[in-house]
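Fill-in record for THUM3 protein.
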Amino acid sequence: AVIGATVPTGFELTAAEEVQEKLGSVSRISRDRGKIYFEVPARGLPQVHRLRSVDNLFVVVQEFKDYQFKENKEDALKDLEDLVKKLPWTDPLKVWELNNSLKKKKTKRKKHNLQSGASKEKLNEDGEEEGTDQKDAGKREDCAQNAAGVEPASGQDTEETQGVASRNGEEGEDNEQSDAKGESQAGSGSASQAGDGKTSEGEVKVLKFRVTCNRAGDKHSFTSNEAARDFGGAVQEHFQWKADMTNFDVEVLLNIHNNEVVVGIALTEESLHRRNITHFGPTTLRSTLAYGMLRLCDPQPTDIIVDPMCGTGAIPIEGATEWPSCYHIAGDNNPQAVKRAANNICSLLKKNENKESSTSLGIPLDIIQWDICNLPLRTGSVDIIVTDMPFGKRIGSKKKNWDLYPACLTEMGRICTPGTGRAALLTQDKKCFAKALSRMGHIWRKGQTVWVNVGGLHAAVYLLKRTWERAEEKRSFW
């Protein structure tokens, strides 16, 4: 099966490397903007779900590298309708059915473990917060949206609709390089023998479905909503599935990027990045982004990895989960952030307790409240620094960043090992960061820059290498 995966924009190469490393049997792999495609045998589907760098998975029905759209809107939409009957649906639907059976087994196993396990407390895996943290739960979507919600400077169609509702995402600064995707969702129904079971009367279950269209490019005569509506109508006639925008069994994906068209069937109901965090803050980072930043630094066994501005702990938790042979230290100056991070660590430990044949040895991670400009760590004692720096929007301000960034880089340079130390720093305040880095050229040497989209904001991950230059010491703790 050809599997497609959406990944954080800018981390396509990182995701492709992980696929090659962890799946091994990949016979073909390609990268696109915010997506990767690879071919694996059906038996490899469980391993695909364990990838850390992918947000969503889908099985590819068919790809068209140079699809010729008609100039007339009615003709172009009619071609999309006719396309449905020509597509090879059989094998992708078999993969979808296999994927469903795997999810059902996992759900049964999870229920059994929760009933018989030592922990009686129900884990909240949907990301809902408890107590005072519930106030921040409503903000998490703003912090974790992908580029589909970005309103571009050009005339590209970018509305996102489901049924008759529509909403626009934030417009970030410097969005000339950001993705301009139009996303709309429309469902229509049709009948299928691919039903995943029978009713009590022995009849084949009629599946419910919807069509989601992602469209980018300003040369199309139709909107995303129109493409999804007409393509969905043809799917309805072909399969006799029943339309349902919210409670659907099958999600058919229609991805259009200029003249490239990819039709697929979703394999994930919600993004895989929602895995480690249960207590959200105002700027919680996606787990997939955190993984990509860590992987850029190529952690080695026994490395000491520090996140000096950890927030809710997304980066160190991801690091401790994926690189348990390293030692991870997380810290923040905000006591509420430290509390949330500690709660997220506890939730992860409880989840590990309920896993089959888990030894529950804990995770190599400590968290502390500290001052970023005066860290209680020895000079040259840290191998890797990975952190999400304040953008100056929801936390702090751009004015404060002009003092904060140079101080941060100085202190991080002090604790980082000369010559071999490295850092991956994420920020949207690129002008301020560039100025601060220019003043720290004797301590930090800039390497790769990865442009990413964070909640509709055009940000960058800077990969830095520590020079051999001795850093200035403010005071000694030992």
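KEY FINDING: Residues 91 and 143 are 37 Å apart (CA to CA).
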